[in-house]
Amino acid sequence: MLLPLAAEPFTASTDRDMLPSERREFVRTHRTAVFGYRRRNDGPAMSIVYYIPTDDGELLVSTMAGRGKARIIERDNKISLCVLDERWPFTYLQVYTDATLDEDRDLAVDVMMAVAGRMSGQPLGAEARPSIEAMCDRENRVVIRCRPYSTFATPPRHLHRNDEGEQLSHWVSGVVPWDAADPAA
């Protein structure tokens, strides 16, 4: 089941690394990411996408079957989504995933409907479905199913004044398994 857009995105703490449960909540409550994959001869390919989280932990991305994002899955199913916080100070969460291509038309339409809702900030009504179905057919849309297996976080750090530089601190984050439990308090 596709999850609805969260009323409020999760806000990361500015004084510590995110807990594993907070990383999952960050991903569940945001909507945009940089979709990245390895290219044969050049640096990584990257594009901004809207993604849809599901109740079973997948992240779904709509794309045209002829685009590189869909074609790469046949060669290399390891992709990453760099989930972006849309508020200042920025933070991001890198999500490493195993990806598969799903050509189910109904799912593609459902994901496109959900993406349109995320773009506008409100769900589309049923009256929009015929137009979305026509677009899905015209653009030969498919869904990339991303199954997260680990994450890497960066904290939101910001200078409010130039004289704060000595007080600014960073810490090392690490790759954390997607399904990791929070440490005992």
Automatic annotation (TrEMBL):
Organism name: Mycobacterium paragordonae
Domain Pyridoxamine 5'-phosphate oxidase N-terminal: 20-118
Pfam families tied to this protein: PNPOx_N (PF01243)
InterPro entries: Pyridox_Oxase_N, Split_barrel_FMN-bd
Gene3D superfamilies reported in the protein's UniProt record: Electron Transport, Fmn-binding Protein, Chain A (2.30.110.10)
Name of the protein this chain belongs to: Pyridoxamine 5'-phosphate oxidase N-terminal domain-containing protein
